[in-house]
Design a protein that fits this description.
Layout: H1 5-11, H2 15-27, H3 32-51, H4 57-78, E1 88-93, H5 101-112, E2 116-119, H6 126-136, E3 140-144, H7 151-163, E4 169-173, H8 179-185, E5 189-191, H9 196-206
Parallel strand pairs: 1-2, 1-3, 3-4, 4-5
């Protein structure tokens, strides 16, 4: 059972409670990234319930809509002042997965810190990732996934990018990404926290 009240509200699909808790926490001075982490924890749990057959597509869509509404409230607090252009990053959700919530949070954070982010959307085929990295001379490729059933798709994408000989660092992210998943997929970096994308980008573009 989740102890985080906001995460639990997401799992329970309590739209009004999520909205009020986000506002309350912002007013209380809670950092916006801490709130995002709670929302992501709830979404990861929803994903597990969906894969276990306890939640269905309607619950999955409903939870996504709840989180998108919460992000509207959080966006002004997440976006920092624009800085000088810092480089190109290609991002997308891998083939077979249609989730864009975590991806959209990462995009918001990266854009807020001055990166040019090329968003390929969801259910992205391998060839599209490779073509975009080449076209935009991207130094960082970020791949998103929520469903464990799509880990093989993530692994195949990373493998194809590496075999294409592209000079690009690969970061994978999502609620199911831990050290084992990162190693399994063969990525350079992996995390379930949106904020880690900024840390990775700092390393890549400082090199």
């Amino acid at each position: 059972m989740l102890t985080d009240e906001l995460a639990r509200a997401v799992v329970e699909l309590d739209r009004n409670k999520v909205k009020s808790l986000v506002k309350e926490q912002l007013q209380a001075g809670t950092g916006p990234m801490a709130i995002v982490k709670s929302l992501q924890t709830g979404m990861a749990e929803v994903g597990k319930l969906f894969e276990a057959g306890e939640y269905f597509l309607s619950e999955l869509i409903n939870s996504g809509d709840i989180m998108k509404n919460a992000m509207v409230e959080l966006e002004p607090h997440l976006l920092g002042e624009k800085q000088d252009y810092r480089g190109n990053i290609v991002i997308g959700t891998v083939k077979g997965d249609i989730h864009d919530l975590g991806k959209d949070i990462v995009i918001m954070l990266l854009k807020g810190t001055g990166y040019n982010v090329i968003d390929l959307g969801v259910d992205v085929p391998i060839d599209s990732f490779i073509a975009a990295v080449k076209e935009h001379h991207a130094s960082l490729l970020a791949l998103s996934v929520l469903l464990t059933s799509c880990l093989d798709s993530m692994r195949d994408t990373v493998k194809a990018v590496k075999e294409a000989g592209l000079d690009v660092t690969v970061l994978i992210g999502g609620g199911i990404i831990d050290e084992r998943a990162t190693a399994y997929c063969g990525a350079d970096y992996g995390s379930m926290l949106a904020s880690d994308a900024i840390k990775v980008a700092e390393k890549v573009f400082a090199a």
